[in-house]
Here is the input.
Amino acid sequence: MERKIKVLVWSEGTEPKSVYPNGINGEIASFLRELPNVEVYTSSFNDSEFGLSERTLFGVDVLVWWGHQKHDKVPDEIVSRIVKRVKNDGMGFIPLHSSHFSKPFISLMGTKCKLGSWREDGRSEYVHVFNRKHPIASGIEDFVIEQEEMYGEPFEVPKPDDVVFVSIFEADGAIFRSGLTWKVGKGKVFYFRPGHETYPTYRNENVKRIIKNAVLWVARA
Ligand code: ZN
Here is the structure.
């Protein structure tokens, strides 16, 4: 039998319960569990050792990360633990949305990871499949997320290996590279933009499929 892929879905826990009663980590875990041969765990900022103990991190092949307001409160010691797991051991890392400013992502990228602009206007996001051949785009056609926050370029990250998705925002036609991959040391990183916490983005069928595809892709170093 094929060895199971072990995935940890982490959230800082500041997402509103009215939108995500089980947290964004719980929401994502629930659809990842539909994948065969995948074992899914959740933890959060509020757990002991921030839900990111050495033992926890050494037990998983993929870390999915959602954070927004508590980036700076994650201790550097834990951040270097994550970075080492990615670079030296090939753990996959999937930072979502506002996690562009998370310490592990900034550390892995080695840049400031700033956005050109952002606006929480609840208008729609058109997600264009830019690289149709990439495994993360498997089964995905261009789609619309009815309500999202907008992000605009320039996104201050190193040149990605692949631009899988590009988003265009309804309000003013701003453009953002919304699905990007990098190989960092032995590990794979996939940044995916959608997922502002006041909108039910992680219940969108295309978003779910993309995150499932991404878990399978980053798990294979
Ligand atoms: Zn946001």
Summary: The longest strand covers residues 117-129. The domain at 5-113+180-219 is CATH 3.40.50.880 (Rossmann fold).
